Amino acid sequence: MKKIAVLTSGGDSPGMNAAIRAVVRTAIYNEIEVYGVYHGYQGLLDDDIHKLELGSVGDTIQRGGTFLYSARCLEFKKPEVRQIAINNLRKRDIEGLVVIGGDGSYRGAQLISQECKEIQTIGIPGTIDNDINGTDFTIGFDTALNTIIDLVDKIRDTASSHARTFIIEAMGRDCGDLALWAGLSVGAETIMVPEVKTDLKDVAEKIEQGIKRGKKHSIVLVAEGVMTAQECSNELAKFINIDTRVSVLGHIQRGGSPTGADRVLASRLGGYAVELLMNGETAKGVGIKNNKVIATPFDDIFDGNDHKFDLDLYELAKKLSI
Ligand code: F6P
């Protein structure tokens, strides 16, 4: 392995820069040339591929976003388009590609390694959603979690002053992990996730009981995969007449400086991805399980269900918020 490339794809997440840095520095440490592909898979098509040096990743570990930029490239689903990407890698003799992103991004990597045996591919899980098989945690989840905690703590201050119920919408696509972990951390009265059905009549009753007990305010944290906060507020209004406000946290959740946990995770996974390429491995996604770095074939990541919603944690959060 003499030359590799790295790209970031899909929704960005804090810690992607730390992962790129680990890929670049591990490769150069092992005398491998590294190329950065700008703007995700689109950059592979546009030949936006540039050599990275040790200094290219200096002063990046603490930065949110991705200095390689990210994009969602639907065109990449076409085989003739992928051939352009493969040719752009081959003409530079690039033999390994590291893709940092979600499992949609892994699919592009899987296709490249299937269609060109000379190019090995490895995926690194980068998304705030924590929704990828083959890993307990994705890069960016911890930072987004802490961002939500900070924001909801602030909302709670004003909710308390005005004795209001706040319906707060968290990201996560179809996965409830962000809402669950954040909800537990902020002591939300109700956590709504796609993995567990919630009856809004019960939510209304719980708020009512709380008010009877002297509670002045309430936080309902709803994952975007369930419904919007506005829909939730409209539905709740059918059962209870209280002063509510809606807050959609939005893309703030994707930004900011990565936490220590994300920087360490990104560094471990970035370093491991390069080691796998050097060992001839391909079509695998790296991850962390029980604090050990592991690699899982893309096929098992796509078809598996090892990243299960933590029902015990959900039940605990429920018990603690009575
Ligand atoms: O996958 C990350 C994520 O932030 C999801 O939580 C969210 O549903 C989606 O991306 C938003 O995508 P976009 O940035 O295209 O609005």
Automatic annotation (TrEMBL):
It catalyses: beta-D-fructose 6-phosphate + ATP = beta-D-fructose 1,6-bisphosphate + ADP + H(+). Pathway: Carbohydrate degradation; glycolysis; D-glyceraldehyde 3-phosphate and glycerone phosphate from D-glucose: step 3/4. Gene3D superfamilies: 3.40.50.450, Phosphofructokinase domain. One of its GO terms (cellular component) is 6-phosphofructokinase complex. Allosterically activated by ADP and other diphosphonucleosides, and allosterically inhibited by phosphoenolpyruvate. ATP binds at residues 11, 72-73, 102-105. ADP binds at residues 21-25, 156, 187-189, 213, 215-217. Pfam families: PFK. Keywords: Allosteric enzyme, ATP-binding, Cytoplasm, Glycolysis, Kinase, Magnesium, Metal-binding, Nucleotide-binding, Transferase. GO terms for molecular function: 6-phosphofructokinase activity; AMP binding; ATP binding; fructose-6-phosphate binding; identical protein binding; metal ion binding; monosaccharide binding. It is found in: Cytoplasm. Residues 3-277 form the Phosphofructokinase domain. Mg(2+) binds at residue 103. The active site is at residue 129. Catalyzes the phosphorylation of D-fructose 6-phosphate to fructose 1,6-bisphosphate by ATP, the first committing step of glycolysis. This is ATP-dependent 6-phosphofructokinase.
